[in-house]
Amino acid sequence: MKYLHVFSLLLLFSFCDAVVQESSLPVIEHIDSTKYSTRHYQEIMDALEHKEDTVRVVTFNTLFDKFDDRYVESYRWPQRLPRVVEMICYLNPDVLGVQEPYNHQLNDLINSLPERYCYFGEAYESGLNAGIFYNQERFELVDSKMYQFKKNGLAYVALKDKKTGRVAAYFNTYLPFTTINERETNSILISDILEKFSDVPTIMMGDLNTFPNRPDLSASIPAYDGDRVLARLKGDRLVDARENNLLGHYGPIGSFTNEFPSIEPFEGYGTPGVILDHILVSKDIGVLTHTIECGKVDGHFPSDHMPLVVDILLGGPPGTMNGTTSTLLSK
Fold it and tell me: Hey, is 276 helix, strand or coil?
C-alpha cells in the first residue's frame, strides 16, 4: 500500500479534546546566562534569533495491534487511537515519522489527523509501515522514494521549506526487533543509502531497536548490538540529536514505557540508558532541543514507545545560519 496525498479532517475535533498530562516538552521562556559558558550562551542567542525558522521533527512508534488481545481493553488500538492523535496534535510536528502501524491503523491515522498533513510511505513485506507525514502548508515535496529491503525498508522524502527555501532529506525506518542479523544487514544498507546524500542536509529517524552493550541488563534486554548499529548509521557525517544540541535533553533517558526491571509496556518511563528511538542529523543542521515526550493522554500512554521530539534549524549550527542548501535530485 502506497500513499502520497493530502487527506481530509474527519475525527480531529473529537480526538483533540483530550489533555496531555505530565508533558516533558520544554517551554523555554528565559535563558539563564550564568548556567552556560559565554560562547555557549551566545550560540544559543544566535540560534534563537532564527526561532521562527525552527522545524519540529518527531518520531513515534504507534504500535501494531497484532497482540492487542494480550492487553487490557484500554491499551488496544481502538482505545489508543484517539490518544495517539491527541499526542501528535499536541506535539504539532512539521515532519513526523511513524513506525509499526498496519495498513488499517495507518488509514485510521490518515483519516484522523489535520488536513495539513500529507503522507508518503509503502508497507513493508511484513505488512508494517514506517512512512513520513509532513506539513504541506510549510513544505513542498521535491523528491520521494521507498527503499525496500527483505522485510523492512526506508522511506525518504526531500522537502523544500517554503519559508526559507532550504531543502533537506528526511528518512524514516523501523529496524527489526527480533533478528540481530537483520538489524546489522539493514543498518549497512541504510548507511550506504545515506552516503548518497552527503551533499544535502539529512535527518534520519526511526525506531532503531538499539539495545546498548550492557551485560548488566542481560535479564531486561534481548541484544547488545545497539551501539554498533547506531555508530554505523551515524558514520562520519551524522550525529545523535540527543547528544548534540544547544539547550539539552528533556524527559526520561529511556524511550520504552516499561518500569524497570519489568519489561512490560505502559507501566513507566523506561530502563535508564535504553533508548530505542533516535533522530540523527547531519552536522550542517543546528539542533535546539531534544525531548523524549513522557506525557499521557487521559492518564494513559498513547503507545508502548514515547515519541521523540527535536527542534532543528536547517540553516546549520550557530555561525552558519545563512549557509546554502544543495539542489536535491533523485538518488
Answer: coil
**Cβ proximity of 274 and 40 under 8 Å:** no
Residue 168 maps to a domain: yes
Phi, psi of 167, deg, nearest 5 = -115, 140
Does residue 320 lie in a domain region?
no
Q: pLDDT tens per residue, the chain (331 residues)?
A: 443 433 322 333 334 555 899 999 998 888 999 999 999 999 999 999 999 999 999 999 999 999 999 999 999 999 999 999 999 999 999 999 999 999 999 999 999 999 999 999 999 999 999 999 999 999 999 999 999 998 899 999 999 999 999 999 999 999 999 899 999 999 999 999 999 999 999 999 999 999 999 999 998 899 999 999 999 999 999 999 999 999 999 999 999 999 999 999 999 999 999 999 999 999 999 999 999 999 999 999 999 999 999 999 997 655 443 333 344 545 5
Residue 321 within a domain: no
Q: Report the domain count for the chain.
A: 1
Q: Is residue 208 part of a domain?
A: yes
Cell of 251: 524527559
Domain that holds residue 242: 2-25+32-313
Cα separation of 114 and 128, whole Å? 23
Reported residue count of the chain is 331
Question: What sign for the dihedral angle of Cα 135, 136, 140, 144?
Answer: positive
- Can you list the alpha helix ranges (DSSP code H) found in the chain? 12-15, 38-48, 77-91, 103-110, 180-195, 226-234
Query: pTM of the predicted model, to two decimals?
Result: 0.92
Instruction: Tally Cβ neighbours within 10 Å of residue 227.
Output: 13
CATH no. for residue 284?
3.60.10.10
Distance between CA atoms of residues 254 and 270, nearest Å? 5
